[in-house]
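Thread: Newbie trying to understand structure tokens

Hi all, I'm a second-year student working on a class project, and my supervisor (Dr. K.) asked me to get a predicted structure for one chain before our next meeting. I've only ever worked with sequences, so writing a 3D structure as a token string is new to me. If someone could post the tokens and maybe explain what I'm looking at, I'd be very grateful. Here's the chain:
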Amino acid sequence: MQIIISNSSKEPIYEQIYAQIKKSILTGELQEGQPLPSMRQLAKDLEISVITTKRAYEELEKNGFIYSIVGKGSFISEQNTEIMKERKMKAIEEKLLVAIQNAKEMDISLVELKEMLTLLYTEDE
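---
Reply by user tm_fold:
Sure, no problem. This is what the structure looks like when written as tokens:
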């Protein structure tokens, strides 16, 4: 597992760690039951504070991506595909709402917005 921290990003470091581990879980790069590096080891590897890695791990655990066992470490949780799909759908909806609001502010019609979405969606096909 490789985590890259960007000092030029406006996103806090713990959120960068959270997002990258979450992505690795969702893409299957990290498998159920697989151990994560200890908070101290990850902090040392990334040359950041243990408090930062602790916060990232706490967010991952709170959202069901990992679980911790005292004295043993943190591990990848079993991922319920329906829950994961629902979370992704919610994230997409939130981003679409922002896009819709921006389109309305720019007086872009629904037809134009649909055309744009269709074009972007089929671009890689």
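A couple of things are worth pointing out once you decode it. Residues 50 and 103 are 42 Å apart (CA to CA). The chain has a mean pLDDT of 91. Feel free to ask follow-ups in this thread.
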